[in-house]
Specification:
Number of domains of chain A: 1
Radius of gyration of chain B: 19 Å
Distance between the termini of chain B: 50 Å
Oligomer: heterodimer
Strand content of chain A: under 5%
Strand order of the largest sheet of chain A: 1-2
Structural class of chain A: mainly alpha
CATH architecture of chain B: Orthogonal Bundle
Strand order of the largest sheet of chain B: 1-2
Largest sheet of chain A: 2 strands, antiparallel
Radius of gyration of chain A: 20 Å
Order of helices and strands of chain B: HHHHEEHHHHHHH
Number of helices of chain B: 11
Distance between the termini of chain A: 19 Å
Number of helices of chain A: 15
């Protein structure tokens, strides 16, 4: 076995690998099995799984609680959309600008916070404040049309244009699926590398990590920058999938909170957790919706109340998240 | 005369800041005594604001007369919440408490969204356009009443903690948790009481704020952030600091609104937060970390 494969699969029980393979296979053929509506739900699931995975690198690996990840989504979305609207630069080239912008923002926040020992709750507040700062700032930025919103030109497409991300939802589905798989593999490689082990050491006991000679500042910076860069891709996707951007929506505190629900419910610090959490949350929400529908009740916004309740129950009863609990019972947990 | 404009706006900012200070005082009391970070603080204020709005809409009750009822309702809410849920989280890690409050905040905001819709609601009091002239200074009546009410509530809270046996007992719990248990204080009950009092503060602030501000469900999360900014600027856990921080933030926002554009004033408030976090992490009145 090549060392990379060994690093990816080492210690994972065979049945867990088989289940994971079957799951990926199912996701690959899913568009042929489900209708248009369910496809959009699956896109949403993958979107939250992807961002959850990116957020997880900061909180789950390095223990730095960010409650302002909407900042990186928004920066990615606005950078790519503005380049497309103003200069006709496509999303993949735009990504080459969007990612550095988000990484830079993460680096500035990280540098200020870690240099000046802003930690714990203060760090979380700082991340929210910077995202809010960006929201109000973009409200006044005329280059991106301020609070009146930035719109991408939309037309009826006869074929899927992958290069410009214009086309049928199925194309967006496969783009997000590929991204989710890549970020999953990437997270696993990070977790099993020196970077990952150092991050875990910092999460568990920062003083002890520093005493063991780990440059905690540097590795926390890496975690923030990697997480910010990965998150910005979700923003680019968001811009080209929804075709409209409003600072009020993209940067709002509610968005930042929405992002962290999947990994919190699934299991912070685990790799399956964010994916599992996204499925559980959206799945349960759709179930609830269908249930209410059969009774003829339609309460807009009930989904988010429900998300809050699920988070409440998980935080009280399963603070580690649902996945570690299931994995232990089914014998899918990794052996050390 | 331009100087008059600056003075008037500054006075308005200070008066509004006292109400924000009262809101933040609640957060500071909860953190200082119970050591819990109430991330649902602004959402709780929105509850009080909607209560005042309903009372005005249904019975024409002036929001300022709703201060005591709102404070009482929020006290009950906080007492039950602390007793039933948060007490179990006292020994959990900090971020775990934080996320518990996030969950509660999500639930509150979205129930409000379902019940009242996303539109901004406001109350039209008979004195909304009245003003007082003090020499060259002109102050809005609603802001002046609000600031006076906020000061009265804050003074009552100070007096409670300073002069009553229960208040002293609560401070004892904050100073030495184990010691308080040894001398036979019912710490859990006192914590619930304190959390309730912090919520009562924010309830009173909500009723007062309803006189001069709009309320939307989305106002909750932003108010939470503002309360944190104020408390961090004033010094986490310091009661005087919370009021001073409120005045500082109110003044900053008002001046920024005058000198730049009103819709961008929040940026200056967050700017203050960043500066305080970096250069004065213990806040204006906070103790140096030991």
């Amino acid at each position: 076995m090549s060392p990379i494969i060994a690093r990816l699969t080492g210690g994972v029980p065979r049945r867990a690998l088989i289940l994971l393979g079957l799951f990926v296979l199912f996701m690959l053929i899913a568009p042929a099995l489900v209708g248009d509506y369910l496809l959009t739900v699956l896109i949403l699931v993958l979107y939250f799984a992807y961002i959850g995975q990116a957020w997880n690198i900061m909180m789950g690996f390095a223990g730095q609680l960010s409650l302002g990840h909407a900042l990186y989504v928004g920066l990615g979305a606005y950078t790519a959309a503005a380049l497309y609207v103003h200069f006709g630069i496509g999303p993949w080239l735009g990504l080459l600008v969007a990612v550095p912008v988000a990484v830079l923002a993460g680096a500035v926040i990280g540098f200020l916070a870690f240099r000046f020992r802003v930690a714990g709750v203060y760090f979380a507040i700082l991340t929210i404040a910077v995202a809010e700062f960006a929201r109000v700032g973009f409200d006044h930025l005329s280059w991106t049309s301020g609070s009146s919103g930035l719109f991408l030109p939309v037309a009826q497409y006869t074929h899927n244009d992958l290069w410009h991300l214009r086309g049928h939802p199925a194309m967006f589905y496969y783009v997000m699926l590929a991204a989710t798989i890549l970020v999953f593999i990437g997270s696993r490689l990070i977790l099993k590398s020196r970077l990952g082990y150092y991050c875990l050491a910092i999460r568990e006991d920062e003083q002890a990590a520093r005493a063991s000679g780990i440059n905690t500042f540097r590795y926390k910076m890496y975690a923030v920058m990697i997480s910010a860069g990965m998150t910005s891709f979700a923003g680019v996707f968001y811009a080209f999938y929804y075709n409209n951007l409003f600072p009020e929506q993209v940067f709002s505190i509610g968005r930042s909170i929405e992002i962290i629900l999947a990994p919190l419910v699934g299991g912070v610090g685990t790799l399956i957790g964010p994916v599992f959490g996204a499925f559980v949350l959206q799945g349960l929400a759709e179930g609830l919706h269908a249930l209410l529908d059969t009774f003829g009740v339609d309460i807009p916004g009930i989904k988010h109340v429900f998300f809050g309740v699920v988070l409440l129950v998980v935080v009280i009863a399963l603070p580690e998240g649902i996945w570690p609990w299931i994995a232990r019972r089914l014998g899918l947990a990794e052996r050390n | 005369m331009p100087l008059d404009i600056y003075l008037n706006v500054a006075a308005g900012g200070i008066l509004a800041g006292l109400v924000y200070g009262l809101m933040a005082l609640g957060l500071s009391v909860i953190f200082g005594m119970v050591r819990v970070v109430n991330f649902a603080h602004g959402e709780m204020m929105a509850i009080a604001m909607y209560l005042a709005l309903l009372a005005f809409g249904l019975f024409g009750v002036d929001p300022l007369l709703m201060i005591v009822p709102c404070a009482a309702v929020l006290f009950g809410f906080g007492y039950v919440l602390q007793g039933a849920l948060i007490n179990r989280f006292i020994t959990r890690p900090e971020h775990s408490q934080f996320l518990l409050m996030v969950a509660i905040a999500i639930i509150i905001t979205n129930i409000q969204l379902i019940a009242f819709g996303p539109d901004a609601r406001s109350v039209q009091t008979p004195y909304a356009f009245d003003s007082y002239q003090l020499g060259r200074l002109i102050v809005d009546a609603d802001k002046l009443y609000g600031a006076i009410a906020a000061l009265i509530v804050a003074a009552a809270l100070f007096a409670f903690f300073r002069f009553t046996r229960t208040g002293t007992a609560i401070r004892a719990c904050a100073d030495n948790y184990t010691g308080a248990q040894i001398v036979g204080l019912n710490v859990k009950r006192l914590y619930a009481l304190t959390f309730g009092l912090g919520c009562a503060c924010v309830g009173a602030a909500g009723a007062i704020l309803m006189v001069s501000a709009d309320v939307t469900p989305q106002f909750g999360p932003i108010a939470t952030l503002q309360a944190f900014v104020i408390v961090i600027a004033g010094g986490l856990g310091s009661m005087v600091g919370a009021l001073l921080g409120g005045v500082l933030i109110g003044l900053t926002a008002a001046m920024a609104g005058l000198l730049f554009t009103p819709s961008a004033k929040a940026m200056f408030v967050y700017g203050i937060l960043v500066l305080v976090l970096l250069f004065l992490p213990q806040g204006i009145m906070g103790k140096k970390p030991s």
